Amino acid sequence: MGQPNRFAVLAALIGVFALTLPVASLANDAGVSGANFAESKGCEPFTAGLSRPLVNSTGYMSTNEQIKGPWGDMFGRTYYQVSQSLVEWQLPGTSKILRVHERMIPALDQAGASLEAHFGVGESYSVYSGYAAIWRTVGGSLRPSEHAFGTAFDINPRENPYSRDNYLRTDIPDWFVQSFVDAGFCWGGDWISVKDAMHFSWSGPALTPGYPGRPRPYPPVTSASGYQGATLSLNSRISTMPGTTVTLGDVTGEGAPDIIQLAASGRVEAAGAVGGYGQIAVRGATGSGSAESVVGDYDLDGRPDVWVPDRSGSTIRFEAWTFGSGFEQALSITTAAPSSSTHLMLGFYDDDFLPDLYVFNGSLFSVYGSKSAYGSVTAQIALPSGADASWHFATGDHDIDGRSDIFAVSDGQNPSIAISTASGTSATFSTAVSVRASSVVDFADYDGDGREDLFVLTDSSLTIAFGGNSSGAPDSWFQGSTSIPHDAGPECQITECETIGYVSAEGIWSIADRPRTEPDVISFYYGDPGDAPFAGDWDCDGVDTPGLYRRSDGFVYLRNVNTQGIADREFYFGDPGDVPLVGDFNGDGCDTVSVFRPAEHRMYIINELGEAGAGLGAADFYFTFGASGDVPFVGDFDGDDKDEIALYSPTTGRIYLKWDLVGGAADATFVYGRRGDIPVAGDWNGDGSDTVALYRPSEGSWYIKLTNTDGSADHVIHLHPHTDKTLPIVGMLGSS
Q: Do 180 and 188 form a contact (C-beta atoms < 8 A)?
């Protein structure tokens, strides 16, 4: 179903660290901004919405269960706060009364008006079943359902069932669905990997056109600590470096602050909060030659963009390099802020969903509001008491009124924290966290209690001092024991490296632009259920495309483009029980289909493709390698531009590599993986040699190594729903 362009949503950017030398300090805060709560990437703004926070137990939750992070900010920090915010709303044209969150009412009323207009011209749809608020988690997990917040409702489940196989069955008319979609709802029929046609969920106020203002956050249920309580020490993958900006922003959509770094070369990297900032979660590059920047979601796709200031004129102009483009495309922003302004920061003062610009002019901070298109001063905030221009500055919501305040932190072993609020009040604290002149400092909510926490990054050492007296593990709301950190994937040293994809049991091919979390994916149908899929370069053009072996008729079907369509070449393949092996075994730049015959443990290498109506022909040579039960796979493990055969033993987890196409003992072995893994190989970083990766169907994850040695994976990429029916593909798939 097509979806019209609508006002999109601002992600929870959380805040931004001060900048390391030699560029002036920069920091920002987003507060509660009506962030992207879309339930699926298949719904506008077509970027995954904020993950719902984890809770302590599965099933129906207790009344005192805390809701942490942006979901708590927006809908209530406990079940009690949520339940006190539920109101009744009658679905137009029916007798159904839904208990829903009061903040969703403007969106429901907008959708209801559209439904009434359709009813007025004689259109109808009968709703016999409907329900909304239910305080429970999803399917035995620790994530609350959207129903738990009163932000979702289901209708007529018999005619509109949930489909794990991604098959859409619905009797809901398009006009009915569109009435809710236009008002900022995500319909389960638009989900990507599964379908739930009965289900409608609200994507948040920023996705509802004309929503009456940015809601204030719900009050915290923790007491303030004055930054004298608990602290957390972590080692960050990103460290302070001269000539770079280090910022905070939620680039992963987990709701917690990630650490972002911009270098003068334009290189952008972010370390994710999930995984304790130990993994690069996002990587990109701007076209800017400056490291000075702030981050904020200017194009409102739900993730932060990098704003690089241009001070060449009398006033500051920004180029906002967008997250959605991999930071490769920029939008221009003009402001009235003088180019001489220092301590540029972003925050929220206006009640809309765009960030406002905060600048220092020597005696106070001026706010250039987004409502004025940054063309005039909206407000002024005093310099915090006792602070001067040498202090570290950041924005954050100290008094939790939904507007960003000014935080200032001095250097030293027991630094002072001085705050000036947007409402005109002030506060002063001290902390035992050591701060250097070269440290970067900011305030953001790490433990999800709604209070700003102090972040201090010195070299690669990160210390967080909590602003509230929370109990329990501070990260338990955004990462659990089975959480897989976002991973930017291997850094490719050439124009394009090999990537990953998968083929579903229904014959849907999905190809990632590169091996990373949340890649751009192209999908198309090719083949029938039960076919054995693989990929290879059949026409020698440098791009790997689909192939499949159909066991029902014994034929191989090859296609020369990554699109839906009929085969460009087909031929009969081997004997029943044979397994196809795809590779360029003679280094001519073309892939062929060879044979592994498990009954003989023998490889039959064939350097020509079969002809139409005929078989593969005689093997160029053959050899025996491995033992019963070993799984063969193909790769260029010695970097000689010719593929070799490797074996994986599911019983021992041992990998056996050969440098030549001959029998005998392996040239190298190592242990990697566990039972049920499927081995593949690729040149993930462009160094000319293939290394092993394991695909784990039970998780839908790839475990990629950059060296063929013992040890853990260098990258773990989660790409698709968990199912043992899905098979992996790798290659130069040309999807970028």
A: no
